[in-house]
Amino acid sequence: MDQGIRNYLVVTGGYWAFTITDGAIRMLVVLYFHLLGYSPFEVAMLFLFYEFFGIVTNLVGGWLGARIGLNLTMHIGMTLQVIALALLTVPDAWLTVPYVMAAQAISGIAKDLNKMSAKATVKTMVGKTNDSNENRTLFKWVAILTGSKNALKGGGFFVGAALLEWLGFRGAMAVLAGALFIVMLITIVLLPTGVGKMKSKPKFTQVFSKVAAINWLSAARFFLFGSRDVWFVVGLPVFLYDVLGWSLTDIGSFLALWVIGYGIVQASAPHLIRQSHHGQGPGGGTARFWAFVLAIFPLGIAIGLNVGWPADAVLIIGLILFGVVFAINSAVHSYLILAYSDHDKVAMSVGFYYMANAGGRLAGTVLSGWAYQTQGLEGCLWWSTGFVLAAALLSFALPELKSSATKTA
């Protein structure tokens, strides 16, 4: 097997295992602390450091990966996740807001080190050629990685909700920590050193991109992911439990299936939008078009709830349609950041881009708790619509790509 593909598969396997724990811990924290009587805003605050340190990690992580190698950044992330999970196995009396926020901060650092490592590895796998097929190959591989990751994160939602009912909060955390530790040991044995490591040691100031396309794409990414999390993180699961009366397993299963379907669509994105880019990778126009399409769905769900249509049907149908179009948007963005990046600087470019991604998640998470508590789920959806439109408008600045050699500054 080609060494580059082998490295990619090992990193991806580790990322998959990590992703299951990431989805599980999020579902566990939301549901468990809601059951303890925390308000929606207080639950959102538990994720404040998780998202904030994701911003910091992506800024530093790309630079670190370029200096020490992507394999080491991945293993550091996995170690930190095991620690974060272990910290949450303590008795209930210890689970104060500051304590949980600190554990979530460690988990946030871990998650973004793993994400950056896996995404940047895709670029190192694709050859440095000017072949017109390279854009298609890159789009296919990054779509498969991102889509499969999100499908497994959906599986993590189900695992988290099921473990909460079967083993309780502490038992669930212990099982997840043990399983991830075993996977980490396997990847340490299989993965060689130096993957993605730059020959020269980059300066920290180089993490801030000087490529205009990357900066505009990062800004659009901020609003795209904020548009999802502003209603998905806190508002939606709390609404399903409190207003619609769903059980914990029902909520976990539904959100798991949603994210799994979202991941499948994301992995299929190169085939779904093939005609729009005529055999080449998609460009700025594709990102702009799908962002405007996406804005229709949170707007439609909000209107449907406001006029009194059956909430179950509105949310289920609306979520399915939103998930399909959001997955296409995300896949296009994930491809574009790699297409706009130079091979030698891909780790830092991806780190900068995911710093913006984490910033959008932070804004969306905080707004999700506050907006749901003050304006209900409809208010969350109006905020979501505004964020999507901001992403669409920023996409007007994204250039088209005719070949992998084209880099627009």
Protein model, in words:
With 409 residues, this protein is mostly helical. The protein has one domain: MFS general substrate transporter like domains (Growth Hormone, Chain: A), CATH 1.20.1250.20. It is built from 12 helices and no strands. The protein has helices at residues 3-35, 40-45, 48-68, 70-87, 97-125, 133-190, 212-232, 235-242, 248-272, 284-306, 311-340, 346-394. The protein is globular and about 50 Å long.
Strand and helix layout:
Elements (H helix, E strand, L loop, with lengths): L2 H33 L4 H6 L2 H21 L1 H18 L9 H29 L7 H58 L21 H21 L2 H8 L5 H25 L11 H23 L4 H30 L5 H49 L15
Helix pairs in contact: 1-4, 1-5, 1-6, 3-4, 3-5, 3-12, 4-5, 4-6, 5-6, 5-12, 6-9, 6-11, 7-11, 7-12, 9-11, 10-11, 10-12
